[in-house]
Amino acid sequence: MSNDPITLLSKSEIEKMRLAGKLAAQLLEHLGQMVKVGATTQELNDEAERWTKAKGARSAPLNYAPGGADPFPRSICTSINEVVCHGIPNPKRILKDGDIINIDVTPILDGYHGDTSKTFFVGTPSPKAKKLVEVTEKCLKLGIAEVAPGKRLGDIGAVIQNYAESHGFSVVREFVGHGIGSKFHTAPQVFHYGTRGKGVRMKPGMSFTIEPMINEGIWKTKMLDDGWTAITADRKLSAQFEHTILVTDDGVEIFTKI
Ligand code: MF3
Ligand code: CO
Ligand code: CO
Q1: Which of 3, 232, 60, 239 is nearest to 140 (CA)?
Q2: Which of 8, 122, 144, 241 has the smallest number of Cβ neighbours within 10 A?
């Protein structure tokens, strides 16, 4: 995990990550079309599982149990409103008008992971939900724009933190982006806050996620008794967007795009 060595992807691994990333993006787009008032998070999960298998891939979250944790019991994460991340799909959770829902998918194709998420609106968002989601999406975009060989991971964290806080929002500290490839979560940790010029230096062939979780209120989170669901400590809204990227010879490639 975070004290693994940082590995660089070979040419053939990069090709596999392109395919896994594209599949993840297609899955997320497909599930996004199912987000409607009255749908349940279990329906989203079941369609993700069916679709992923039909493509010859499998769902990395299903039974994922890092460090002896309770295995994650579903194939995707669905995190609604005050849920920061790792929400568990459930047949009783019916989407209602005004909810915001992050769907986070990670198919494994030919041994390689594509990890991506987006926050969707159910029906009509409140102005504050709309602002939070727009700012969070822009945080991911600004973070990706900092990726280039020779730059530092702190450049990514700093730009995200500055943008989020300039809008009166806060950056979650307890969950971070991560190296990814044949492993789901490996080094380096990618903080969504920090200081320009500090941290690991980026090199061509490094692959990691950027996945800022931005809160309407305070940054602190709380874990529910299920051992997975993280919620905001003040129960205010949280949003998230995620891409899996590659550091290239001259900048960045987004793997999780269609
Ligand atoms: N996809 C999440 C991430 O972005 C991890 C989910 S782990 C699970 O890193 F077990 F909760 F699914
Ligand atoms: Co991730
Ligand atoms: Co993810």
Answers
A1: 239
A2: 8
What is d(CA 245, CA 252) in angstroms, rounded to the nearest whole number?
A: 7
pLDDT of residue 3: 86
Q: Render pLDDT for 184-228 as a digit per residue (tens, 0 to 9).
A: 999 999 999 999 999 999 999 999 999 999 999 999 999 999 999
Binding site membership of 179 for ligand 1 (Cβ less than 6 Å): no
**Secondary element (H or E) of residue 107:** strand 107-109
CA 160 and chain centroid, separation: 14
Q: Decide whether any atom of ligand 1 lies within 6 Å of the 74 Cβ.
A: no
Q: What angle do CA 227, 230, 231 make, to 5 degrees?
A: 135
Ligand showing the shortest atom-to-Cα distance for residue 207: 2
Tell me how far CA of residue 204 lies from CA of 28, 40, 144, in angstroms.
27, 41, 14
Residues with Cβ within 8 Å of residue 50, at least 6 apart in sequence: none
Beta carbons of 225 and 193 less than 8 angstroms apart: no
Quote the pTM value. 0.99
242 lines ligand 1 (CB under 6 A): yes
pLDDT tens column, 140-195:
999 999 999 999 999 999 999 999 999 999 999 999 999 999 999 999 999 999 99
* C-alpha closest to that of 99 among 114, 83, 111, 110: 83
pLDDT (average), residues 61-84:
98
Ligand 2 centre distance from Cα of residue 211 (Å): 6
Q: For the chain, how long is the longest CA-to-CA vector?
A: 48
Where does 55-126 have alpha helices with state H?
Answer: none
Three-state SS string over 194-249 comes to CCCCCCCECCCCCEEEECCEEECCCCCEEECCCCCCEEECCCCCEEECEEEEEECC
